[in-house]
Automatic annotation (TrEMBL):
The gene is speA. Its EC number is 4.1.1.19. One of its GO terms (molecular function) is arginine decarboxylase activity. Keywords: Decarboxylase, Lyase, Pyridoxal phosphate. Belongs to the Orn/Lys/Arg decarboxylase class-I family. Pfam families: OKR_DC_1 (PF01276), OKR_DC_1_C (PF03711). PANTHER family: ARGININE DECARBOXYLASE. It comes from Salinivirga cyanobacteriivorans. This is Arginine decarboxylase.
């Protein structure tokens, strides 16, 4: 048995009897007599999946003051959101035992129903550790049914004996081909109208991720964001969004025909890192938009940021809800956070209405496998419309192994996510210590990453994301990335002008972190004493993220006729495309935005330093002809007069 039951009771005789009875039935049991000792066990032992607790407990052995009921259970949940909690008490008046639905059951001590306790505990854990869709898919694949339907490879028969492509079959393997089926198999359910095992898998995911509903998405969080923006916003509605948000949010605004109200992220100019939006800026922007009678319906925030900076999300959600604004949180890089106290509260726990997660980025799902989590209390009113948008974007031929990977990823995190993440934190600390022992590389600390404008915003740092200052190496970040890939066979996540960033996922190992350290040590030893300036300091010093006015709603600018013009001649024209330098990957222009001299200067600077710029082709940008501007003004699609 791979899990344990924590029994918490300060009645010594009752505690001993419970241990004896449940251990005798084969359960691994752990005993605690105080609230404090129970919390310590939850922190240190990731195998605990069930708590059997008295209603009232002493705080500690020294502090006999008691803590009761919901206060106990909420604190248990804040430590380990995935545990099942059962009340085990001498209190019979059930009206005294209201917990708001966070507990999984009740037992009266004097009933002595240890058989029932055992059955309900094992049933709760068995459900959590099941993966209904994956198990059904495996069962189906093993039947080797004759396939008279799509896909065309017919369980791999079209390729496995081919003299030209049988290596394709051999590389991916028989099981992948047998499990790559289609909606022509009713017993495997339909992602677009789930009523069977997919519905069951999504319901288990909702419980695991603390949501009311969860929907599987097989074409990434890019699509998840677009589905939500298109669902919540109608043409003319407004949304607050970070200028540094993922481009899918910008595209969602185009699709919805909404008005974007862009907010400036905090900027760390020393390292070229863009962080959370200052809290006071978010609140002011909400109030200003409402004062201007804009139809502000939603705000979308990225949490955590690409560099691991975590918002004080609960406070922001409360402020938005005071103003009847829905909150979408893009947790593409933060999906695992629900399974460790270090990250509490996540979007769902903080009361956000929606969260999107790239289950493939930070958990064990296949690429493109993502989830949408829903906690919106008004969701039932728009659920049908949501499903229409979901169906509009989803494929009618989803990849079934990808769906299975979502089911398995949820199971793994529900059963061992806490232990896996605790291990990653330990690896992170050891890697940081190793890198900091070098003279030319240093892991950035919280105070390095957070700029002055957000220092009072209670911003935290995700330890699974490590940013390394390489400015003393005499090499550019791109040169170091090249050496790591080509000499040491190490691929990092991203670079800025003077940093490299790595992700420690739940798949991190001691071998990998030590190989990275040895590679950096080798680069340091071979870099000599050169103090070459890569130009990064000048780029960062001169760069300004410009927020020039949005003249026309992006949807109508995007679909307007356009013409090419040289960047140097584009002053006061309106862009019809997104123009984005990589790095940092932030659009300097979006459709409908006025091109200012500040933006032209920034793009020229990036181009001069050889930065890749999407949307700038041979020095040309796409702009709106004057007659198109006049047309949009007449048709009422102008935001500025």
């Amino acid at each position: 048995m791979y899990y344990s039951v924590l029994i918490v009771d300060n009645d010594t005789s009752a505690l001993e009897k419970s241990i004896q009875e449940l251990s005798g039935r084969g359960l691994n049991t752990i005993a605690c007599s105080t609230f404090e000792s129970a919390c310590e066990k939850l922190k240190e032992d990731g195998t605990i999946h069930v708590i059997l607790s008295e209603w009232s407990l002493p705080q500690s052995r020294k502090n006999k003051k008691r803590i009761e009921g919901t206060d106990i259970f909420k604190k248990f949940m804040a430590l380990r959101n995935e545990v099942n909690i059962f009340i085990y008490t001498s209190i019979t008046d059930i009206k005294q035992l209201s917990t708001g639905g966070i507990t999984d059951g009740y037992f009266f001590k004097e009933d002595n129903v240890y058989g029932d306790i055992f059955n309900k505990i094992t049933a709760a854990v068995d459900e959590k550790k099941s993966a209904p869709f994956y198990e059904k898919l495996v069962q189906y694949a093993r039947k080797s049914k004759d396939s008279w339907h799509t896909p065309g490879h017919a369980s791999g028969n079209s390729v496995k004996n081919s003299p030209y492509v049988k290596d394709y079959f051999e590389f991916f393997g028989e099981n992948l081909f047998k499990s790559d089926v289609s909606v022509s198999v009713p017993e495997l359910d339909s992602l677009l109208h789930p009523e069977g095992v997919i519905k069951e898998a999504q319901e288990l995911a909702a419980r695991a991720f603390n949501a009311r509903y969860t929907y599987f998405v097989t074409n990434g969080t890019s699509t998840a964001n677009k589905i939500l923006i298109q669902t919540l916003l109608k043409p003319g509605d407004a949304i607050l969004l970070d200028r540094n948000c993922h481009k899918s949010a910008h595209y969602g605004v185009i699709i919805a025909g909404a008005e974007p109200i862009y907010l400036m992220p905090s900027v760390n100019n020393k390292y070229g890192i863009f962080g959370p939006i200052p809290k006071k800026s978010i609140i002011k922007a909400m109030d200003d938009a409402l004062a201007q009678n804009k139809k502000l319906k939603a705000i979308i925030l990225t949490n955590c940021t690409y560099d691991g900076l975590i918002y004080d999300i609960e406070d922001i959600v409360k402020e938005a809800h005071k103003r009847n604004i829905k909150v979408i949180v893009d947790e593409a890089w933060f999906g695992y956070a629900n399974f460790h106290r270090e990250f509490y509260p996540t979007a769902m726990a903080a009361g956000a209405d929606y969260a999107t997660q790239s289950t493939h980025k930070t958990m064990s799902a296949f690429s493109q496998a993502s989830m949408i989590h829903v906690n919106d209390p008004d969701f039932e009113d728009i659920q049908d419309f949501f499903m229409e948008n979901y169906n509009m974007h989803a494929s009618t031929s989803p990849q079934y192994p990808m769906i299975a990977s979502l089911d398995v990823a949820r199971k793994q995190m529900a059963m061992e996510g806490y232990s896996l993440l605790s291990r990653v934190f330990k690896l992170s600390d050891e890697l940081k210590s190793s890198i900091n022992s070098l003279s030319k590389f240093r892991v950035l600390e919280q105070q390095d990453l957070i700029s002055d404008e957000i220092k009072d915003d209670n911003v935290r740092v995700d330890k699974t994301k490590i940013t390394i200052d390489i400015s003393k190496s005499g090499l550019s970040s791109k040169e170091i990335e090249h050496i790591l890939v080509n000499k040491h066979n190490i691929q990092i996540e991203k670079t800025t002008f003077n940093t490299i960033s790595i992700l420690l996922t739940i798949g991190a190992t001691y071998s990998r972190i030590n190989r990275l350290y040895l590679a950096l040590e080798s680069i340091e030893n071979q870099s000599g004493n050169r103090k070459k300036d890569s130009g990064s300091s000048k780029i960062i010093k001169d760069f300004k993220l410009a927020l020039s006015p949005i003249k026309y709603r992006p949807r109508f600018a995007f679909y307007a006729d356009s013409e090419e013009t040289a960047l140097r001649n584009s002053l006061n024209r309106v862009s019809t495309m997104m123009v984005t330098p990589y790095p940092p990957g932030i659009p300097l222009l979006v459709p409908g935005q006025l091109i200012t001299q500040e933006i032209i200067n920034a793009l020229v600077m990036y181009r001069d330093y050889g930065v890749e710029i999407h949307g700038l082709n041979n020095g040309l940008v796409q702009v709106m002809p004057e007659e198109e501007e006049e047309r949009l003004k007449k048709e009422g699609f102008s935001i500025l007069s």
